[in-house]
Every structure is written in structure tokens, then in C-alpha cells.
Amino acid sequence: TGEGGMLTTDDEELADKIRVLSLHGMSKAAWNRYSSNGSWYYEVESPGYKMNMFDLQAALGLHQLKRLDDMQKRREEIAGRYQTAFQQIPGLITPFVHDDGRHAWHLYVLQVDEKKAGVTRSEMITALKDKYNIGTSVHFIPVHIHPYYQKQFG
């Protein structure tokens, strides 16, 4: 979808909660306020996020649905090779996949047990890049570590 992805469920109650959370915590009425039968009035029912799609993302997502099975199969093949290779390396913790779940494999997250690996995460990242030309990254650095949040909130 260009940004973020898609969530599906057959649980209508859960879908309603997700709709509220994905639009700043605003009530369902907020979704209809610009339609001809909508109202300007809405309420913020809970903390929420800015995760609503715009039309172009929705169109892209609908088009990608046709390729979903092929894309997922390819990601599963790659993740399977990673699992086989990385599970043999002491100190690397590979992703856990529930038997009754389906992983999107948007990211392949490895954790480094520094004691067992004998190197730090940073040393591992540097070695993979310098020795093998394998690019890796820390996808999300915890908010409390960033200077702005340390200055603002201690």
C-alpha cells in the first residue's frame, strides 16, 4: 500500500476498534463527516494514531491484493532460508512464528544475545557490512533513547 500495510479481520467489533485507533481515536462519526449525509461532530474516544489510508494507497492496496499470495510465498521462501542459516549461529535469536499464525515477513528481525555471540549488536552490524557486504539496520530505536525525548522528559 505504499506505507504501512493492511490489516484484515472477520471480527466486526475488532474492526470497529481498529477504525477508531487508526484515525486519532476519533469516533466512527469522524469517518463520515465529509460525506453528504455526515456531520461535522465527532468525539475522541481513545488515544489513537494517524494510520488512515488515502485514496491512492487504497487503490495500490487493491491492486496488490491480486499478487498477495505470490508475494507472501516469496517472502516465506526467503525467511525460510534465513531461519535455516541463522539458527545455526550461536547468539542469534531468530523470529518466532506461531503455528496458528501467518507472518507477513515485512521485516526479518534478528536479536543478538551478546554473551553467546561474543560480540555486541553494533559489532555484528559492522562485521556483516564490512566482511560480507550485507546491509542491516536497527529499524526502530526506542523513543526514550533519542535526545529530544531525553531533554523533554528526562
TrEMBL record:
<keyword id="KW-0808">Transferase</keyword>
<dbReference type="GO" id="GO:0008483">
    <property type="term" value="F:transaminase activity"/>
</dbReference>
<dbReference type="InterPro" id="IPR015421">
    <property type="entry name" value="PyrdxlP-dep_Trfase_major"/>
</dbReference>
<keyword id="KW-0032">Aminotransferase</keyword>
<dbReference type="InterPro" id="IPR015422">
    <property type="entry name" value="PyrdxlP-dep_Trfase_small"/>
</dbReference>
<dbReference type="Pfam" id="PF01041">
    <property type="entry name" value="DegT_DnrJ_EryC1"/>
</dbReference>
<dbReference type="InterPro" id="IPR000653">
    <property type="entry name" value="DegT/StrS_aminotransferase"/>
</dbReference>
<dbReference type="InterPro" id="IPR015424">
    <property type="entry name" value="PyrdxlP-dep_Trfase"/>
</dbReference>
<protein>
    <submittedName>
        <fullName>DegT/DnrJ/EryC1/StrS aminotransferase family protein</fullName>
    </submittedName>
</protein>
